[in-house]
Amino acid sequence: VQGTGGSSAISKCSAAARGYIQDRFLRLLAGRQRRRAPLIHRGYYVRARAVDHCVQDFLLKTQSHPRTQVLSLGAGFDSLYFRLKDVGLLHHTVVYEVDFPNVMCQKATLIKRMEELSALVGDTAGEGLGAITFSGEDYKLLGVDLSELSELGRALEEAGLDNEIPTLFIAEVVLTYMENSRSDALIQWAAERFPRACFLLYEQVHPEDPFGHVMQQHFSQLNCALRSLAQYPDCEAQQRRFLGRGWTECSVMDMNEFFTCCIPEDEQQRVQALEPFDEYEEWHLKCSHYFVLTASKGMEPSWTPLLPSVTVPHCAAPVGMAGSVPAAVCARLSGIPGLRRYGHRSVLIKPDVILTTGGFGEEDGQHCRLRNFHVLSKHAGCWKAGCVTKKHPDKRWGERLYHTVSCLSDSLALVVGGRMSPSNAGLGMLWLKFPETYNASDPADIAVELVNLQPAAEQIFALVTYQILTSLFTWLSVSVGEQYLFVYGGRSALEPVLGDWYFLHTRELSNTVIAVDGPVPESRHSHSACSWEGGALIAGGLGAAEQPLGSVFLLRKLEHGFQWQAVETYPPLIPRYSHTAHVHEGKLLLVGGVWFHASSVPGITVIDLMTGLCLDYVINVEHLEWPLMLHNHSSVFLPNEKELLVIGGGGNCFSFGTHLNPEPVSLSLSSILTSH
Predict the structure, then answer these.
(1) Cα–Cα distance measured from residue 503 to residue 460, given in angstroms and rounded to the nearest whole number
(2) Reading across the β-sheet that carries 587-591, which strands appear in turn?
(3) What pLDDT does 126 receive?
(4) Global pTM value
(5) Which residues form the domain of 431?
(6) What is the DSSP string of 542-584?
(7) Cα–Cα–Cα angle for 165, 170, 176, nearest 5°?
(8) 131-170: b or e for each residue (b if 16 or more CB lie within 10 Å)?
(9) Per the UniProt record, which EC number(s) apply here (predicted)?
(10) Which residue in 346, 492, 374, 511 sits closest to 427, CA to CA?
(11) Is 238 in the same domain as 367?
């Protein structure tokens, strides 16, 4: 448990070094420094911002009181006192910090050794008295086990804590490491002993979904299990916990809601521009699995909660499910190398033959960007897998992620876009050629040839190469005998979101200007696109504000050109992104993705394109022995069997490790497509 505090300090220090938070004291307290990934920086930024928001709000609202106090429980090497003192917010406030005795002794030694820190504290006295390891006029460090309430009470009394003045308790990822009976007792003790008080809590939530499973496993491996999650699995349970233990007011929101509601738009944009970044799925999943809660009692009638009322639709309400879809592991594909990946693309190149390209995954026991192609072939009712032979490997293939592959014929597919890193996204287009005939019983028999574009087609690079990152697309016929590839949206190294589109003539690979009328959809990436009735269906995606979109648009074919037309759904489609999509007999199928409804994860959504009826189905994973993460995956729909094959998926789960779905999963849709 103490180790998590040191790791947290290093992560906060790294975030400060990159400009996410303004804190010149972290580097003095964190000890060793190590640069963290942008995803970690964002996570610790929103954590620090939430705590600072509530602490400063408390100090502002109690500034008319002659004295106030802040009690930080499990403070570790946090720099809160020094930041507040540096900006002049502690004129009449004393800060008390409590942690294990050895942690507080180390911190006291650091402060005395660092002139920049000791100068802010000023004169010290009374150290060595009981549990007090450091004592300044407005700053006290106490080495006490929080689970021993009688000892905690005595130590705080010796240090001068006054039960009668307004007090803010802070517990930043602390209580969850304690036995529930002890942490509950601490919450109730604080309410009973302090007639005018506030309590700020920040910790984890939602242990039951795939991300939650990975999160729990990580902390268990560190030998510091998250004990509160079983009894208090969601924000509502935490709210009831405080209201049932003496606190009269309680507000709570997850970090997606906090980022949206409490951080000004210009500050959001500043943070989003600090580093190249595109791990949006893991960022939003991390934020949905942490919450900030403030509880209060005995404050003035004019007192308002430290957290505002949520001004966006609350995302904890249960999603109504119309039924379930069974999931099963594909027989004989367990342990096949190259199928554990994300950010790849899978495409049906022939009946019962699936080609998978690119992405990040596991190969030879290592995590890396994958250069090899893999093929799945169904023979005699069973899927077989093999590594594809690539002819004339082209340097332009590189190590692509988040590209698109469109099969244009029995022997030809076109690769568009993709990236090697968030700042290297200009990978252009490439032909994939494969034989018209093959040996169905031997997937490795299929060879794929990578072919450069002809010089005349190179002109299109200026249009496409540097603008597509995650654009999904469809091919469609505009006039008899002519095929076009419709390329829409995405992002680039320079533009975080794109809203333009192109009609690529598939024979000449030239951009054709075709008239498009109607309301233009909001710019987006990580959306889905399918061909339907000579046009294209665009669904969901992530918008410019990094918020999921719930709109569905049809690019409807007209006699001369096309028209954008919004598809109304009832009930409204829950906003999502990083899903896949297919059309079958007038129904749009959306598979997985990420949404902000923390009570569940997206399964299968079926939209009737004639009536607009929109139904959500949960995926039944009881027969899977591992968490099924349905983002950054690929899926292939087999219409004859009404079966969906999900290949890969997962991602870098914050600091909890990388999760890769270990094997392809078959979803049987026959019941919902028949009954829908």
Answers:
(1) 11
(2) 580-584, 587-591, 604-608, 614-620, 323-329, 665-668, 643-647, 634-638
(3) 63
(4) 0.93
(5) 321-668
(6) B-TTS-BB--EEEEEEETTEEEEEE---BSPPPPBBS-EEEEE
(7) 140
(8) bbbbbbebbbbbbbebeebeebeebbebbebeeebbbbbb
(9) 2.1.1.290, 2.3.1.231
(10) 492
(11) no
Q: Residue 302: its pLDDT value, please?
A: 60
pLDDT at position 400 is: 87
Query: How far is the C-alpha of 377 from the C-alpha of 636, rounded, in Å?
Result: 12
pLDDT of residue 429: 82
d(CA 284, CA 286): 5
Domain of residue 54, CATH code: 3.40.50.150
> Could you tell me where the DSSP H helices lie in 422-539?
461-464
Angle at 268 between CA 39 and CA 41, to 5 degrees: 20
Segment-wise mean pLDDT, segments of 10 residues, the chain, 676 residues? 77 94 92 89 97 95 94 96 95 96 93 93 75 92 95 95 97 96 97 96 96 94 94 96 96 95 95 94 97 92 64 55 90 72 93 91 85 86 81 68 89 87 77 80 76 56 38 38 83 87 84 91 94 92 95 92 95 96 96 88 96 95 92 94 94 92 93 74
Give the bridge partners for 566, in sequence order: 553
Q: What is the CATH number of the domain that holds 473?
A: 2.120.10.80
What span, in angstroms and rounded, lies between the C-alpha atoms of 39 and 657? 12
Residue type, 600: S
Both tokens assigned to 49: 């911002």
For residues 254 and 377, membership in a common domain is answered with no
Do 362 and 267 sit in the same domain of this protein?
Answer: no
The verdict on residue 352 lying in a domain is yes
Q: How far lies 549's CA from each of 152, 528, 556, 612, in Å? A: 49, 11, 20, 17
Q: Is 644 left (phi over 0), alpha (psi -120 to 50) or beta?
A: beta
CA–CA gap between residue 146 and residue 174 (Å, rounded): 9
Same domain, residue pair 291 and 385: no
Euclidean distance between CA atoms 244 and 248, whole angstroms: 9
Task: Give the Cβ contact number of residue 45 at 10 Å.
Answer: 21
DSSP, res 220: H
Q: Where a domain ends, among 297, 330, 354?
A: 297
SS3 478: strand
Q: Name 536's bridge partners.
A: 531, 555
